[in-house]
Design brief:
175 residues; alpha+beta
Length: 175
């Protein structure tokens, strides 16, 4: 007859302490690597969203300003050979005359005639260094150089550095 105690010693039913610790360590490494990968994906997505927002708004502002200059009658400000941080354009329609582009508290604005200013940028970006230079020669169509900087306004803990881009362009009146 066999002893039941000796059978149990030959065939253990559970894990040893060492085996349990090894399995827990492997599982912990797997969980930590998954969390790190997830964090990297989230940071990359947020960074790309910031870049896209700055680029989209910057190109939209440049397009709006250059199209308004091309459709204008005359540049009121800045005068020839001068630069200013706002642009005033005389337009053909009295409802939009004058059209003024300016920056206030990090937001770019367009003001058409006596209407209230309309924001060209939103709270996701901050505008700075807005400069309009009149590069025209006397008795030639006005040529305006536009430059400004847009910076993302992200306060994310995951993406600590903000994205910034300088925009520039030029346009002249169609006379």
């Amino acid at each position: 007859m066999t002893n039941k105690l000796s059978d149990k010693k030959n065939f253990p039913l559970g894990f040893t302490l060492i085996e349990t610790l090894i399995y827990i360590a492997i599982f912990a490494i797997f969980i930590i690597s998954m969390a790190s990968f997830s964090n990297s994906l989230t940071a990359s997505r947020l960074r790309h969203q910031m870049i896209l927002e700055v680029n989209d708004q910057g190109f939209s502002v440049i397009k709006t300003i250059t199209q308004t200059i091309r459709d204008g009658n005359q540049i009121n400000s800045p005068t020839i050979y001068n630069s200013a941080n706002n642009l005033s354009i005389a337009t053909q329609q009295s409802a939009t005359n004058p059209t003024v582009f300016s920056e206030n508290n990090g937001v770019l604005y367009i003001t058409e005639g006596s209407n209230a200013p309309i924001a060209l940028t939103n709270s996701k970006v901050t505008a700075s260094n807005l400069l309009f230079s009149n590069l025209s020669l006397p008795s030639t169509p006005d040529i305006i150089k536009i430059s400004f900087t847009l910076k993302s306004s992200s306060t994310s803990v995951i993406v600590s550095d903000a994205y910034s881009l300088n925009f520039s362009g030029s346009a002249n009146l169609r006379k």
